[in-house]
Amino acid sequence: MKKLLLIAFTLFSMNTFAQTPMLKATRLNGLKAENSMKFETSNRVNLKKANSTNKVKAQAAPEGTTKSYYADYGESVTQVGLMQRLHVKNDIVFGNDGTVSIPNMFLSTIVGEGIYLKGTYNESTKEITIENNQEIYNEDGLSLYVCYMDAETGEPSTSSNFKLTLDSESGIYYSAEGEYLAAFLTNGSQTQLYTYCTSFYYYPAELFPEAVSHKYTYNDYYGNSKSATVDIVNLGDICYIKSLLPEYPEAWMIGMFEGDNIIVSSYGVASDDTALLFGTTTDFVDDCTFTYSSSSDSYTSESGIELTDYFYYPGDSQNDEGYYFSGSCKNMTITGKSTTAISNVENSNKDVVATEYFDLSGRRISNAAQGVSIMVSKYADGTSKAIKIMK
Questions:
Q1: What is the pLDDT of residues 107-156, one digit of tens each?
Q2: Alpha carbon distance 355, 374 (integer Å)
Q3: Cα(24)–Cα(179) distance, rounded to whole angstroms?
Q4: Nearest to 77 by CA among 139, 14, 148
Q5: How many CB atoms lie within 10 A of CB 175?
Q6: pLDDT tier for residue 270 given thresholds of 50, 70 and 90
Q7: What one-character-per-residue DSSP string does 52-75 give?
Q8: Other CB atoms within 10 Å distance of the CB of residue 134
Q9: pTM score
Q10: Which residues does 52 contact at the CB level (< 8 Å), separation at least 6?
């Protein structure tokens, strides 16, 4: 099986949230987080001058070959910080006319599903170039469009293009470090940055096993005992976990195995403009350990740690401007040991025929570097295994 390089290793080292207010939020009753940011222009949009010409409307995918991927990337949550958007299913269409259509990754709760960003594929460089100034939403004189973002100014820039590069051996497409693709809001003459994404990794769907469902119990905000299910994709050293906060059934978080336990990282994306965070009653924390008990065959979260959504709200006649949450859970228990894994992480008894090293951007290096690197061991049967190395 092809090697699997995971952006999770990069995302675990992110500490960008520390730049934002570490404030516990007030519960916002009667208003779901995903409905709190519907272009509250009178409260939130402060348009500034920028070039917003030559926008083109994003289109549906053309005829061509469809390939399935799972995407991991960093996403800016408005007024909060850079979070992890994880394990997003994408069907990319490689058109018969040489174009590439990538599902739009911005604000789907507002602009809707089924919108694609146009790009072109260069066979010689193995790169997908995403076209600048693609409009994805237009209403009441406001237009939302996608463009390459200048990292220093935060402004749209048509002098550069956002690119995804193919690693031919693994089939993974990834973006260069420090490159940003952004959604800008404009009224035609003035423009404001709405959100941006970075550090894209598109992994071929065949690199992943099927998710396994587990029984899940927790206490909600009011202390009521609730039951649900979570899905876990086990990759040996790490795993993806879906629906830990049941109000967001499509949100994935990432965990790292430490012995029999799972350390689940904070700083996930619950939905557009909404973060997923672990915390105590006074502060947020970087992660939460789910401790495994063989007697009950279950993982139980740390005492005193809760999982909440977290978002900025511009305020209205009933609620002040500030940070809020709308759902939380604690005393979380996942039943059933997570042992299902793909074959390329279950090969410790096989003969190693080659070893390669990569940095956190996916670039091949000669040996393990100081800090964190990824070591890929290749086996005689054609399979391989990717693990994190720390020096």
A1: 888 888 889 999 999 999 999 999 999 999 888 778 899 999 999 999 99
A2: 10
A3: 31
A4: 14
A5: 23
A6: very high
A7: --S-EE-B---SEEEEEEEEEEEE
A8: 21
A9: 0.80
A10: 133, 143, 145, 156, 184, 186, 188, 189, 191
